Amino acid sequence: MQPINDINVDEVLRGLSSVEGANGFVIFNQDCIPLKRSEKNITYEKAVHMSALVADLWNVTKKCIQRELRSADNDLEIIRIRTKAQSEYIISQQGDYTMIGIQLCGKAIEEAKQAAAAEAQAAAEAEKAKKGDKEQS
């Protein structure tokens, strides 16, 4: 097993992104500045907006848990939120950094697969048409 310092963060994020249903991520610092995000699905503006909202949610939730359980030892490790839009937000904080993972759930996974297949088919047909035009010239 590799020491934690030797692990390449980009490799880990690529691995997580390749998991079925993974739909994106944002990693931000304590000042709510996004440091890394899945650029394919999340714009910088959306990452900033999500970071601010999640940081506030994390802090309020942590205070409520400590107050309700009457112990400062109870620490918040992860928050999972499932939406009506068939996605799930998984939020975790380590030190000064917070990660938001976005995962598709249920029918949304099948819909994403169908959309990806249709996109691949359209790209293949466009390439085929392009080759056909070159041959006619």
TrEMBL record:
Ranges of residues in domain Roadblock/LAMTOR2: 9-103
InterPro entries cross-referenced by the UniProt entry: Roadblock/LAMTOR2_dom (IPR004942)
Domain of life (superkingdom): Eukaryota
PANTHER family from the UniProt entry: DYNEIN LIGHT CHAIN ROADBLOCK
Protein family (similarity comment): Belongs to the GAMAD family.
Protein name, per record: Roadblock/LAMTOR2 domain-containing protein
